[in-house]
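ok trying again, last paste got cut off:
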Amino acid sequence: MPKNTHASHIRIIAAVQGFRRAGIAHPAEPTTYPVSDFSKGQLEQLQSEPRLVVEFVEAPEADQADNEEGSVGPDGMGAKLEDMTVAQLKEIAAAGEIAGFSSMKKDALIEAIRLKRDWMGQ
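nice, full thing came through this time. structure:
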């Protein structure tokens, strides 16, 4: 069952660019969708997928400037890795199967995620 069905939006980050789940190819940048775009089953599927970071939010954030890689999610949102919390970075690192992420500090996490994305051609 979805953890928070009261939120109006869901923010999703894929560990691998274009990873497909619930009928959508998810970008590696945070992307926000209305919760109403998904069925209860799709929300459960998204939340149980270890290659996705899923969080329920009350409203989409205002458009942000392009991140330094120049990519912005399909809804106009982008986020710099530097602006994410260590917990968010560790979720991305775990989903991306980055070895040793649990003991990394923020700068090392950011570098490891970038290296993984570069290696994956993202």
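cool. The first strand starts at residue 9 and ends at 14. Residues 90 and 104 are 8 Å apart (CA to CA).
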